[in-house]
């Protein structure tokens, strides 16, 4: 546990410098005061002028901001987590924390300043962020103990304000352990819900958190992505450094590159539709997080491996269409067509496809030498012109033109092996 905490400490303190961090002040009519906020903008924010980013609002921003920013920066470096706009609300500067989260002792709903703070976040803070920054529709909120219990109140709305909730060791308002599962079951929009505790947590809080989980984990609906972590050997405060990466990887699981587990458990077992799976994965990323990404080369490789494993060779044509759309100048699409023709015995067409690929830009570990070698090897199996044999004739080699300079990424694209969990060096972000 100590090693984990130490590692995450260094991650947080080092990674924080990779993002732009600014302090701002909002004059709130509902709070009747100025409230300080800290904004963390993604490293690519200034470069990618058309990109929008998911928003993470952090209560207890005074001490949670750096921890979340470090985890997000590290995950993004390996392309496991997307870049996010982080908004930390200062609550400890003038001891506003308890007053901000005031709730009625009988019904558990925000009251007095708690009601004003509740409205400040939904009606002032979020519109301010959406107007000033390129914020995607996907919104998250996180907090610890008092603030974690308070943020759950947004789930009581008919249409919840946030899409994802990170509630770490929540101090639950009155009746919430019974009411919250009912709300999670009733809400129609897709919701990500994460909460956590630990064996060293505050006992009176922990018992109610466990009671909430006992009911919530029985909810079975496709629109609810639910997770509860109960950490061993952690205290009320150290559980935070365990919870943050767990929550983020839960919320952005679909964003991550295809892993060995996903390949073996979800893709390779399919009877067909491997290319459809890939297209749908990226469609979900775009619709859920407003992130339009080119399909990763290693994900192309994973689908290629599934096609080869299951001998579903006609799917190479559909995969080639995706490759042409995502990497139009590269040899990837023609290489995949060559594979289809080769595996289905149409050697002349395979030779032609590999020679066409030769004229296009290299990508990953697909090289011009590889295309020539494949074409030359297949030519040996073709019948000689003018001699008995199959009607199929050798394809003429196209004229080789000078290849334009490529601006296409050069990540590795192995040809017939499933993906590994260890990211390739070429998959690192080169921001």
From TrEMBL:
Pfam families noted in UniProt: Esterase
Stretch list, region Disordered: 378-431
Record-linked InterPro entries: AB_hydrolase_fold, Esterase-like, Mycobacterial_A85_antigen, TPR-like_helical_dom_sf
Biased composition (Low complexity): 401-415
Top-level taxon of the source organism: Bacteria
Protein source organism: Flavobacterium sangjuense
Gene3D superfamilies, per the entry: alpha/beta hydrolase, Tetratricopeptide repeat domain
UniProt protein name: Ferri-bacillibactin esterase BesA
